[in-house]
Amino acid sequence: MVGYIVPEIIIGAFASLIILLNYTVTQRKILGYLSLLAVALAFVSLFKLPRMTAWGIYAVDDFAIVFKAVFLTVAFLVILSSLKDINKREGEYYSLLLMSLMGMLLLASSIDLLMLYVALELATIPSFILAGFFRDKQTSEAAMKYFVFAVVSSGLIVFGMSLLYGLTGTTNIYEMINRLELNTVSILASLFLVAGFAFKMAAFPFHAWAPDVYQGSPTPISAFLSSASKKMGFLAVLRIFYIALSPIANYWALAFAILAALTMTYGNIVALSQTNIKRMLAYSSIGHAGYIIIALALLNTKVAIFAIAAALLHILVHAVMKAGAFIAGIVAGENIEDYKGLSKKAPITALMLTILLLSLIGVPPLAGFLSKFYILLSAIYAGGSVGYVLAVLLVVNSAISIFYYGRIISYMYWAKAENETKINEPLSVTLALIIAVILVIVIGLYPSEIVNYLQKAAESFVKGL
Amino acid sequence: MSALEYAWLIPTFPAVAFVLITLFGSRWGERSGIVAVLFTALSFILSVFVIIEVLSGKELTYENGITWISKESVGFAEEIFKFGLLIDKLAAVMLFVVAFGSLIIMIYSLGYMHGDETVHRYYAEMSLFISSMLLLVISRNILLLFIAWELVGLCSYLLIGYWYKYSTAASAAKKAIIVTRVADIGFMLGLVLLYNWLHTLDIVEIFERAPKELTEEQITIVSLLLFIGAMGKSSQVPLHVWLPDAMEGPTTVSALIHAVTMVKAGVYMVARMYPLYVLSDTAMLVVAYIGAITAFMAASMGLVRIDIKRIVAYSTMSHLGFIALALGSGSIAAGMYHLINHSMFKALLFLATGSVLHAVHARSIDIRKLGGLWKKMPITAITALVAIVSLSGLPPFGGFWSKDEILAAIKASAMHEPAYIYLYYLTMVTAFLSVAYLFRWYFIVFLGKPKSKEAEHAHESPAIMTVPLIVLAACSFIVPTVKLFGYDEVVSDWVGEYAPYHLPHLTEDEHEKIAVISAIIAVISFLTVFAVYYLKVVSSETIVRTFKPIHTLVNNKYYFDHAYNYFAERIVYVFSLLLDVLERLYDKYIVDGIAKVTLMFGDVIKKLQTGKIQDYVTLIFLGLSVLLIILSI
After folding, report:
1. CB contact under 8 A, A377 and B616
2. What is the ipTM of this complex?
């Protein structure tokens, strides 16, 4: 029985199929549609997955399902918006995207350090090539930076993991919990892991690659990196830290608290002075990572489960919002000047982007408000100096962020463009935007079911299957 | 299939009409009126089914609300936002009245607003107005009620200022929204306190828990704060000043505001929260006193006005006072009975007034320019007479019976709280005045000779306007008979489920005595007016001269407007000038300062981003080391 890895099998099979078809099919559009089909099939199969653990390294729990759903949703939006953009070497592009996606899906279920590391690399390595996909100077530089960074952080992660193995003699995170003791080495190991995964999460000061890479990569790939790839960091941290490293929780939670405060403040403030939209979104993404890290800093308190649910909600919502915002850039352009008068030039894109930006600001009743609200709530319930300081910072940063998001909205609707010729709005891109907007609105209006499920998911992974 | 399950559609229909007309109205033009009427009619039909079902004993509180953030999902938080609907007998009765009145007024509008240029805006706003009022009636959550309440306020602002080209209309709209907003502060405070003490805003839950968990003082405070909101909406003294000015809107708007929506929202809210009010004798007494004073002042001011619509407006205010008085005297049945009666007659009277104004092509007019319309507009004249007779409380029409009920309730309350007895005498005086000012209005407008060119050329309005008048006049005969079908129990029994409550009762003898006295007063008053304005035994000028000081006081509207203006100009304005200076300084140095510093900070630390990968990797290890150092300390 291999029922529990059906989504991965579907994605893997289609990735191979597409590479093969790349050299035989003349109707190259079909490759894009095939990958869409693959993602859709994998998504459907999520509903039928049995809950179980296999070989002590692979677990299908609600927690994993949530992340798989996030990755698949983002991948769907990214592929949909790529249909127009990518018109050479499609086979390569889509199969690499699916490979990376497969790595993410595997990562979501990994409960063993080795498995987790391999899945992480499987997800990361194809994205180097995707980041440099256009092969011009700018994207190549971006890909190079991304590669070097990823390798350094991989090194940190492996180092941390090997220390943990040395201390406990196991790589299974649920077994590690009983064997880990508080000592200098275990703290050191946890810090290496923090640093390594902070790279993935793009947390300050491990963030520096993100703006350069997002700016340089093809726009759909920027969306993929910021919405899916980045979330792997949170996934791995939740799994490893909250379970395996819980005996030394007080130490790393403080580290995360510091990271959260720095990251959200840094991201939001630097975003203020950006003139390139992709860079601005990259910094805003860093800011939002800071919000999620708040939840990580609360993992040693009594509200941990609630904080995890809040983090999951924000991960889900942010993935959708940020993917949508990047995708809008495919139509609108990269420079902030391009957004002047966009409501005339591309009315649908402008409207959809406005809703997404409002959600990013956190305007009720959109989803972005709710997820931030839940994080704020968990920080306040956690209380103590850490909880309150982070809550205040979250609110202050949200206020700062209104400026740079609002500026785009005001440019789109109130600034005059130099030429007001209509921009073509490709159907596939518009469709991706509409899906994102619908998700943002629906989650905003009916959050209870989702949050209840997320809380169940948080509980499921704490207990282990 | 139960109509109650679909009750949420009742406010939804006009809301849909609002959206449709907003989107396509400019294309539809006057045809948007038909859309508005159709959707209002749907609401009315559904409300008929609802009231039949509720009265047939299907006591149903509709609890399936929409939950936005559920208790479970917030984990250990206390708060839930739950928006539910509550349709018990009180709500069903009110729902029916509102839907019926709105429908008639909307149909009438088709004729009255004919030829107006921006008529689609009128229909859009009217639809939203009706929708919000219907929502207000069936809200189960007091927060939802408040939202609907504010929407009602917003729509009244938009519609009073519908002819915003006229500066008087624009400022009347502003006055309405400002005065009611001041009152809403009271409402909001009440809401906050309720939530603070009971941790719920669900009306049913409040009823169930308030008697057990709140002290009498707390209940008094909350009820009175909520009543401040009602005072603004239902134009009770001293927050009544907006209502007479609100006549600047189209007459149909006045009809809607006065008969079924805006001003009824306030007293309906008091009736809705009645189980809370009956727990506090102080609150009841205050409500009764404010109501009685309002009724008296309004009636006296109505007697000296000369503007055709303002007199009718003061009449509304006076009757709202009666309703509040009835509620304050412990008789929700009398209050609601008077409310329903008043809805029918006032809608009728306003629409008749509208018919007159339509005939003389005016927004409003000095009554002394009219006269002799009896022959030229017979239908209008007769239907207006029906409204007048009933409103003024002449036997044997509906108004007489509801006034009688109110007097009986006061008398009964006076038996255990002596303070009520003064209200009894004051109300007798008011009853005298109400007959007087209404018949004065009628005699001058419809009888005698035409006193201007417009009045001479007046002619009857088209059928689209007169048919609603006839329908309403017919209803004015039917409505009072509801008393014969156990009406009292319908609107009052539910209160007893939550709080110890008995309708105040008098012996038959006492009751008869009151009826006879009030009938005699009404007849004397009628005869006096008849003598002055028809037979002209004494000229009205002589009376004015005789009572000069009183006339000046009343004619200046008891100086309420003067006092408010003085307060606004001398105190609020000076204070605001002072704040303005502070605000500018604050804005320049603190607000802009923070923004500038933040932006500068952003520009500076942006330089960390050198673009060189070597720097970035160095940064990683720097960060790692710093974390290590912090944690090792």
Report:
1. no
2. 0.73
